[in-house]
């Protein structure tokens, strides 16, 4: 070996680099398995509503309920939600609560759920379904 040096990288060092690389990639893979819900809360005149509490509830969530508050532009985003069916409820003092049922999330999808909130008491206003319902006289 006339003056040449051989560099030997210990196997432990190679293993450590491989494990650290794998750990860095795991959060990326996990985030691809989630969805989100986002939107804007407004009053019936179209004015944005900051400070609205937005609650997403689902059996798909470990904690069952996740809350956020709308920002100064009335916007919100609830991230890292497991795929499944959700109910989204908007509440703000002085306004009727607004509730949307049956929001279905899939992986890597953002569902847009906006609220038009009415001034009033505490009862929940439900968004109307696009599915027509039979009237009582039609069922007889």
Detail the topology: elements first, then pairings:
Layout: H1 11-31, E1 35-43, E2 53-57, E3 65-69, E4 75-81, E5 84-91, E6 97-105, E7 110-112, E8 115-117, E9 124-126, H2 136-139
Parallel strand pairs: 1-7, 1-8, 6-9
Antiparallel strand pairs: 1-4, 2-3, 2-5, 5-6
Q: What can you tell me about this protein's structure?
A:
By secondary structure, the chain is of the alpha/beta class. The chain is built from two helices and nine strands. It has helices at residues 11-31, 136-139; strands spanning 35-43, 53-57, 65-69, 75-81, 84-91, 97-105, 110-112, 115-117, 124-126. A hairpin with a 5-residue loop joins strand 5 and strand 6. A five-stranded mixed sheet has the order 3-2-5-6-9, with no helix packed on it. Strands 1, 4, 7 and 8 form a four-stranded mixed sheet that branches.
What tags apply to this protein structure?
disordered C terminus; alpha/beta; elongated; 140 residues
Provide a compact summary of the structure.
By secondary structure, the chain is α/β, with parallel strands linked by helices. 18% of the residues lie in helices and 37% in strands.
